[in-house]
Amino acid sequence: MTDFKEFADVCNQIEHTAGSLDMTEIVSEMLLSVSSEELPVVVHFVMGDVFPAWSTEQLGVGPSLLYTALSRSSGLPLKEIENLVRTTGDIGETAIAALKKETRNQATFSSFMDDTPSLSIMEVFERFNNISRTNGKGSQTTKIKNLQYLFNSATPEESRYLARLAIEDLRIGVGEGIVRDAISKAFNVPVGEVERGFMLTNDLGLVAVAAKEGGVEAVSKLGMELNRPIKMMLAQVTPSIETAVNDLGVVAVEWKFDGARVQIHKDGNNINIFSRRLENVTRSLPDIVEAVRGNVKADSAILEGEAIAVDENGNPRAFQDILKRFRRKYDVETTVREIPLILNLFEILYLNGEVLIDMPLSDRRDVLVGCVENSVRLKVDDQVLTDDVEKVNEIYSAALKAGHEGVMIKNPNAPYSPGKRGKNWLKKKPVMETLDLVVIGAEWGYGRRANLIGSYALACFDPDAGTFLPIGKVATGFSDEQLAELTELLSGLIVVESGREIELKPEVVFEVAFEEIQKSTNYESGYALRFPRLVNVRDDKSPEEAETLERIEGIYLAQKSRS
Ligand code: AMP
Q1: How far, in Å, from the CA of 247 to the mean position of ligand 1?
Q2: Please, what are the domains in the chain?
Q3: 3-class SS at 131?
Q4: What percent of the chain has pLDDT above 90?
Q5: Ligand 1 in contact with 306 (CB < 6 A)?
Q6: 107 has a pLDDT exceeding 50
Q7: Would you place residue 273 in the very low, low, confident or very high pLDDT band (cuts 50, 70, 90)?
C-alpha cells in the first residue's frame, strides 16, 4: 500500500520542476514504485483526473461543495474559506491554510499536527468512488462527508493535492504527453506502442498496467472495446480547396454537416451513443437508437456520424436546437417530436469483432455502405472521389446552398487516427475562421448588469502540460438574455473571486470570431485576438479540444504570409 503522502511529495517535486524531460523522469519513477492495483489510479491522478476519459463515472465536486467540506473540516465559516481562496488564489493553499487554523476540531487533528500519513492512495480513490456513485437526495451530504474524512486524515502537503484533485485541477503541468513518455520509459515499451495502445483504449491507466505486466507484447495486444468510446479523429482547416486537392491528389469529398458528432457502439441490440466529449448521450437520442437498431446490419459495430436537426422541409435547423436535444435527459419524447434528428454516417471503426481503423478510408467506406440500409432517419453520407478542383467547388456550393457548413476533404488512403487533427481530414468553410477557446475567468458587470457575469477571459490549450494559456477577452456583443444564460452556466464553476474578478474552472468552450491574431506580451500564450466576438457556446466540446497553442501560432504565421 503506497501512502498518499508519497504521491503528494511527487506532485510537489514536479511543481518545482520546469523541464518536461525532468518531469517525465519523476513520473516514470513513481509509476515504477507503485503496485499494479495502484498504477492506473496514479496515472489518472497525476494528470488531475480521477477516472479515465471514457468512463461514465464523474466526481461532480464543484468549488462550492469543496469550500463547504473545507469549512466543516476546519471549523471555519464558509466566508473565511472564500476569503482564503481569494487571498491565496489557489484551492490547495486554501486547504492548507484553513486546516492549520486553531478552530480545527481537536479530535481530528492528529495527521495534520504530527504530519504522520494515514491515507493510502487506494483509500483516497475509494472515497472519490463513493463521491461519484452517490446520487439523488442526500448525495451532497455524502459527498461532503467523504471529503471531510479525507481532509481530516490528511497532512498539510496531502491536503493541498486532495483539494485540487477533488475539483480535478491538479495544476502541476502533467498532461497526456508526459505520462505517455513516462510509461514508455518506466516499462521499456517504445513510445509509439504506448501511443497506439492509448489511441485504442483511450485509457493510459490500462496501457500502463499492460506495459508493467506484459511489456511491449501486452501493450500491442490492447484493442478497442465496445462501449468504451475512443477519441474522435478531427479535421484541420485548409486555406483553399485548391491547396487541399494539390496536397492530396484524389480526394474524398463530403458535405460538412452543421450538426453534432456522435460515436455509436452497437453490441447486438444494445446501442450506446457518445458525444464528441465522450459523454453517454443515449438517453437523449431514442430516435437515433431506433434507427441504428433497424438499419445497421451488424452484430457489433462502432460507427460515427453527424446528427443534424431538420425542419419540416428537411432543411437544417440552428445548431442550438441540436444541443437542446443532446442536453435533454428527462421528458425526452416532447423534444424528440419538436426537434427531429437525422443521422449522416461517415465512419465505421469496428465490425463484428474486427478493428478497422488501419484500413484506408475508401475500404472502410465500402464496409460502411455494406452494412447500412439507408432510410429517412439515417444514411451513409454522399461521398465523391475526385481530383478535379472544379468538381469540389461545385459540391462546396451545393452544401452551402443546402444550409450546411462547407465540405470535408479527406484522404481516401488514410487510416482513422483517433484524437488526431491531421492533414488526412481537411475542412473548408466560407466564413472567417473561428477559434474554440476555453473560458478561464470573467468579471461581474457594473450597474444594471452587476449580477451578470461578462467580459470573459479566454485561453488556448497546451496538450503536453495539460494547461490553459490566456489569449484574451471577449466582452462585446452580448444581449442581457445571453449574459443571464452564461451567468447561470458559469456561476457553478467559480474558483476564486476577488472584487469583480472571477477565476473559473476551465470547463466551458466559446467559439469566437476575430479579425486577426497579434503577438502580445499581455497574455501567457504570447498572442492576443483583435476584435473577438462570441459566435457560439460549444458545449459539445471539452476544454481539451480547444485550440492548441500550436494552431494559434499556425494561424498567426499563415496570416502573416498572406499580408
Ligand atoms: P470542427 O468542429 O469545425 O473541427 O469540424 C469537424 C467536425 O465536423 C467533426 O467533428 C464533425 O462533427 C463535423 N462533420 C460534419 N460533417 C462531417 C463529415 N462529412 N465528416 C467528418 N466530420 C464531419
Answers
A1: 20
A2: 49-166 (1.10.3260.10), 234-428 (3.30.470.30), 434-562 (2.40.50.140)
A3: helix
A4: 69
A5: yes
A6: no
A7: very high
The reply to whether ligand 1 has any atom less than 6 angstroms from the CB of 80 is: no
Provide the mean pLDDT of the chain. Answer: 91
Check residue 460 and give left, alpha or beta (phi > 0: left; psi -120 to 50: alpha). beta
Best CA proximity match to 337, nearest among 346, 345, 328 = 328
**Region of poorest pLDDT, from 25-29, 239-243, 469-473:** 239-243
Closest atom, ligand 1, to C-alpha of 254: 19
Return d(Cα 263, Cα 227) in angstroms, integer: 10
Residue 435: strand pairing partners: 512
Closest C-alpha to 379, from 412, 346, 336: 346
Q: From ligand 1's centre to the CA of 233, what distance in Å? A: 9
Our answer to whether residue 256 is catalytic in this structure is: yes
For the chain, give me the number of helices (H) and strands (E)?
21, 20
The number of the ligand 1 atom at minimal distance from the alpha carbon of 256 is 16
Cα 336 to Cα 302, 304, 318, 329, 342, distances in angstroms: 24, 21, 15, 11, 11
* Residue 92, C-alpha cell as written in the block: 490547495
How remote is the CA of residue 296 from the centroid of ligand 1, in Å?
21
Q: What DSSP line would sit under 182-218, residue for residue?
A: HHHHHHT--HHHHHHHHHHHS-HHHHHHHHHHHHHHH
- From the CA of 425, give the closest atom in ligand 1: 21
CA distance 261 to 506: 22
Per the document, the length of the chain is: 563
Average pLDDT over residues 492-504: 88
Question: Which cell is 492 given?
Answer: 457553478
**Separation of alpha carbons 136 and 301, rounded Å:** 34
Beta-carbon contacts of 132 under 8 Å, excluding residues fewer than 6 positions away, are 50, 51, 57, 58, 59, 60
Rounded to two decimals, the pTM is 0.79
Residue showing cell 422541409: 313
User: Rounded to 5 degrees, what are φ and ψ at 422?
Assistant: -125, -170
Beta-carbon contacts of 38 under 8 Å, excluding residues fewer than 6 positions away, are 2, 121, 122
Q: For residues 391 and 400, what is the distance between their CA atoms, to the nearest angstrom?
A: 14
- 12 exposed, middle or buried (CB, 10 Å; 0-12, 13-18, 19+)? middle
Whether the Cβ atoms of residue 522 and residue 445 lie closer than 8 Å to each other = no
Q: Note whether 520 and 528 are within 8 A (CB).
A: yes
- Contact 300/353 with Cβ under 8 angstroms? yes
DSSP 348: E
